[in-house]
Design brief:
alpha/beta, about 45% helix, globular, binds phosphoenolpyruvate
């Protein structure tokens, strides 16, 4: 019913020319994939990436945007600027942005609305800290993040949003959530969306798992009913590993 979505988050890695050669190397490896394949690349790589991904099944995303349309926001990039380059997706609220760049649930909400208004598809990251999991408040944290993120978003718009469940303790640490933990948390997110918009909408929303997903653990994580894909950091930087994850999505 929901198409699996495998997205790479390159973070601050690869120059524009490296992006060009990487995508040319990746394209034949993921050709014919049964899932949606996305590469979220640095701003400076977007033009090269969109060009290299043309006539392939790889879609290109950015890793952030500003919520204002234009104006005196030195160093920032608007949704319209991304659309104008041919970008289709944008990661919003990644935990590294929340941690290092003061992003809050409120700015995440503003960014989602700006992305939707411009026609970009948001990949919205939510997830608990290790201390929150230890305090057994993971479900509350996820519900708060989702409720604020989706504030003012219509049911029709909500259907097109991708949510990435990314436990902060599993990102870039090599520690992966068990497939049961991932499925349970993605289930909490889905029922929270159902409480906001009803079951029919919630069943359409793609919910990914992210956090040290790799070529070895992807198949098990993706086998869970509430896990509709992956947001992959480290393992998306190597074409062989990333293409194994894409292939695992078809199993
Ligand atoms: C991420 O950056 O979204 C991520 C999940 O990173 P990693 O796969 O490296 O943990």
């Amino acid at each position: 019913m929901r198409k699996t979505v495998i997205a790479g988050n390159w973070k601050m890695n690869k120059t524009a020319s490296e992006a060009d050669s990487f995508l040319k190397e990746l394209a034949p490896l993921v050709k014919g994939a049964k899932c949606t394949v996305i590469a979220c690349v640095p701003f400076t790589d977007l033009t090269a990436a969109v060009k290299a991904a043309k006539r392939t099944n790889i879609k290109i995303g950015a890793q952030n945007l500003h919520f204002e349309k234009s104006g005196a926001f030195t160093g920032e990039i608007s949704a319209d600027m991304l659309v104008n380059l041919g970008v289709e997706y944008v990661i919003i609220g990644h935990s590294e942005r929340r941690q290092y760049f003061n992003e809050t649930d409120e700015t995440v909400n503003l960014k989602i609305k700006a992305a939707l208004a411009a026609g970009l598809k948001p990949i919205v990251c939510v997830g608990e800290l290790l201390s929150e999991r230890e305090d057994d408040i993971t479900a509350e944290v996820l519900r708060r993040q989702i409720k604020i993120a989706f504030k003012g978003v219509s049911a029709d718009e909500a259907k097109g949003i991708i949510v990435a469940y990314e436990p902060v303790w599993a990102i870039g640490t090599g520690k992966t959530a068990t497939s049961e933990q991932a499925d349970e948390a993605c289930g909490v997110i889905r029922s929270c969306i159902a409480s906001l918009y009803g079951k029919a909408v919630a069943n359409k929303v793609v919910i990914q798992y992210g956090g040290s997903m790799n070529a070895k653990n992807a198949e098990e994580l993706l086998s869970k009913p509430n896990v509709d894909g992956g947001l992959i950091g480290g393992a998306s930087l190597k074409s062989a590993d990333f293409s194994i994850i894409v292939a695992a999505a078809a199993k």
